[in-house]
Structure formats: C-alpha cells, structure tokens
C-alpha cells in the first residue's frame, strides 16, 4: 500500500474512535442518570424506577415507549435529551424506557416481537412508540433534538 492509503486509514480510524469517545463523555458528563444497560424503566419522582409492562401500558393519557439499545451510539447520545424531556413531562405523559442489551431474551424479547409483529416498529433504534388514550398514534425513529421532540409531543397532545 502506498503512504496515502495508510494516512487515509489512520485518519478514518481516528475519526471513528473520536466520535465514540465524544459520545461516551457527552453522556457521562451530564447531570442525568446514566443510561442503564438493560431493563424496563419509568420516571417516578424525577428518577428512573424499574417498571413492568406486558405489551401496551394502560393509560387514559399519552404514553411514549422508548426502545433503546444499550450498545447503540445513537441511543446513548439521544439518552440525555430523552431523559430530560421525560422528567419535564412527568405527570403529563408517561415515558417507558425499554433498554435492550444483546442478546435479547425472555420478557424483553416478547415485548420486541409484539411491537415488530404488530408492524408498530421495524427494529430500528432509537424508536419512540406513541399511544394516546390506549390507541397507537405514531412511531418516531432516530435521534432528534429536544426542540423537535417537544414539538412532536405538542402535536399529539
């Protein structure tokens, strides 16, 4: 290989590693609770608490189910925004966080299959599945800014 090829490879690897390091420290340096490695959670009194849901949590309000993968850099980078909005909206909107860690098994797999088989989710993460008064409204896929997330929530409320 020529020298130029090696330079391109080294610079590319440095950029990739830099992005992962930046995302790690961006999440760790915030004043929020770090993203758990796996489990189902809800915000109560401003803090994450373990929750237990089967399929669709019953509610007369708006419910947002966040599907995240603990090894996904986009999910980890989206976590501070999502957590902040969920804390701000506590009491108005219920946020459930379903955080998968590969390999997915047991109850977590059943929940994932339910959303996938109902065509509510295509397996992409991060994903937010929105219900209002017990009925499916929308699925939002991908990372978004706090302003965009709040705007979407306002549209459905």
Considering DSSP H and I runs of 4 or more, what fraction of the residues is helical? 40-55%
Q: How are strands sequenced across the largest beta sheet?
A: 2-1-4-3-5-6
Q: If you average the pLDDT, what whole number results? A: 86
| CATH architecture annotation name of the largest domain | 3-Layer(aba) Sandwich
CATH topology of the largest domain: Glutaredoxin
Instruction: Return the string of H and E elements.
Output: HEEEHEHEEH
Low-pLDDT stretches are none
What is the terminal-to-terminal distance?
A: 58 Å
Count of alpha/pi helices:
4
Integer tally of domains: 2
How many distinct beta strands? 6
Q: Quick one: biggest sheet?
A: 6 strands, mixed
Per-chain topology:
Elements: H1 3-28, E1 39-44, E2 47-50, E3 62-69, H2 73-88, E4 93-100, H3 106-117, E5 127-132, E6 135-141, H4 146-156
Parallel strand pairs: 3-4
Antiparallel strand pairs: 1-2, 1-4, 3-5, 5-6
Provide structural commentary.
The protein is an alpha+beta fold. The protein folds into two domains: 1-30; 34-156, Glutaredoxin (3-Layer(aba) Sandwich), CATH 3.40.30.10. It is 41% helix and 25% strand. It is built from four helices and six strands. It has a six-stranded mixed beta sheet with strand order 2-1-4-3-5-6, with helices on one face. The radius of gyration is 18 Å and the shape is globular. The N and C termini lie far apart (58 Å).
